[in-house]
Amino acid sequence: MLVNDEIPMFYDGWHQTDVIRTKSIARLKGLTSRQDPWFLGIVPTSPHVQNGVPPIPLEWHKNHVSNPTVPKPENFNPSSDQLQSNKPSYLKKFKMLSRDEVG
What we know:
Blueprint: H1 16-32, H2 80-86, H3 89-92, H4 99-102
InterPro entries: Alkaline_phosphatase_core_sf (IPR017850)
Region (Disordered): 61-89
């Protein structure tokens, strides 16, 4: 992990997401105790890359969240008519997802 152009540090046996989490929490604790404005940007690279296969989580992450659900707000998967009416041009080319695509 590289911080402020220092010599990179390596955390053998640690997953990148765990290092980022630990460092982010420590930094937040320091920043939130200050009176002046602050900004914290966290920009991780890909934590795990296996070409052609699903990501393999660390053992302790495997059953960390059971039956996850993703909220679907009112504007989720709008019809093509809704997309055309008030969306930026780059979104207008997308079509409504099918039931199979949504899952």
